[in-house]
Hints:
Blueprint lengths: L11 H8 L12 E5 L3 E6 L2 E6 L3 E2 L2 E2 L3 H15 L7 E9 L5 E3 L4 E10 L7 H6 L5 H17 L7 H19 L8 H27 L4 E2 L9 E2 L5 E2 L11 E2 L1 H15 L4 H12 L6 H21 L9 H19 L3
Antiparallel strand pairs: 1-2, 2-3, 3-8, 4-5, 6-7, 6-8, 9-12, 10-11
Helix pairs in contact: 4-8, 5-6, 5-9, 6-9, 6-10, 7-8, 7-9, 9-10
Amino acid sequence: xxxxxxxxxxxxxxxxxxxxxxxxxxxxxxxxxxxxxxxxxxxxxxxxxxxxxxxxxxxxxxxxxxxxxxxxxxxxxxxxxxxxxxxxxxxxxxxxxxxxxxxxxxxxxxxxxxxxxxxxxxxxxxxxxxxxxxxxxxxxxxxxxxxxxxxxxxxxxxxxxxxxxxxxxxxxxxxxxxxxxxxxxxxxxxxxxxxxxxxxxxxxxxxxxxxxxxxxxxxxxxxxxxxxxxxxxxxxxxxxxxxxxxxxxxxxxxxxxxxxxxxxxxxxxxxxxxxxxxxxxxxxxxxxxxxxxxxxxxxxxxxxxxxxxxxxxxxxxxxxxxxxxxxxxxxxxxxxxxxxx
Length: 341
């Protein structure tokens, strides 16, 4: 009789420890840089990047099962190939053989799924170029043209117009209610004033929002258009679209560009927003209302403030002031932009 018991499945710690080792990759790797995010572990192994999703389930995200993580890895590759076809190489399997040895695309059972990408030169990411004071208007032209073509050709999404308006009403109320919790350390009076201003702005802007739906301007977009996701090298690409919830990618391209403009302003390059919005308007024959841009920007700023505040729940105490200050900065900008809407 064989008394050997099957070895327990590898833990997340086991998987991370294995992927930290350069010799475990199917290609030469001198070193492996490791990045942990809220939802993933990322491994930069020389010219390639491997990423696996944490087994979490929260709100709109459910990576709790191996099957779900596989589906989301496949979706991440498929969706990101729209704007970065040569970067997203496919999905690899982390396997375990009968002796319990882990391998990438080896024999045995699959214990995890990995998104495999080509590694980009970080010097040419938009956020790095802004930080280094190296960004010029001509640098933006190729990636802006890529995005304009993407939004021009993206599938149009049919929505109930009133549902689209209600989404902004609901999200603003929910985000500010979350921020009002004492643990996030934001002034209650400031939040109440901003909530009132956003409700009024939504009422003023609702005819424009309804018109955007009627005109067929709502698309299946990128969903997370931030400077760190825009690569300005040759060829330009845009990475890391929001893959885990299709509903969050259903939006107005002007909303996407307003978000990018907000993040560039936070980074110290407020001039980028008007440049990319003007390019979009010309390329896509879209009349861009500045009050609509301001409304979208204010709502994005409130969302970003909430996401910053959430860092207080799991970051070291010495980082609390940083995230509280950053959340407050977004709320200040939300107040500025809502007054323009």
